[in-house]
Amino acid sequence: MKELVEIMAKALVSNPDQVTVVENTVGDETTLLLSVDPADVGKVIGKQGRIAKALRAVLKAAASRKNVKVILDIQ
């Protein structure tokens, strides 16, 4: 899941070398913390959060195939 978020985020931002994803797993729930350059936060979130919602939807679909719960936090 971590690699999926990294690939999608790097495709969206101007500074792909600043993209980091930290994965924390507790039981069957995984939290992914996505950090990008402050200038690129708007590109990852999108207008009215549409890009962030799309990222979460793709992540949820991938997680459902593995029967795990994934939460994406963007910083």
Shape: globular
Largest sheet: 3 strands, mixed
Output the strand order for the largest sheet: 1-2-3
Strand segment count: 3
Task: Summarize the helices and strands and which ones pair or pack.
Layout (H helix, E strand, L loop, with lengths): L1 H11 L7 E7 L2 E7 L5 H5 L4 H16 L3 E6 L1
Gist?
This protein has 75 residues and is of the alpha+beta class.
Verbal overview:
The protein has about 80 residues and is of the alpha+beta class. It has a single domain, classed as GMP Synthetase, Chain A, domain 3 (2-Layer Sandwich), CATH 3.30.300. Helices cover about 45% and strands about 25% of the residues. The protein is built from 3 helices and 3 strands; from the N terminus they run αββααβ. A 3-stranded mixed sheet has the order 1-2-3. β1 and β2 form a beta hairpin. It is globular, with a radius of gyration of 12 Å. The two termini are about 20 Å apart. About 15% of the residues are buried.
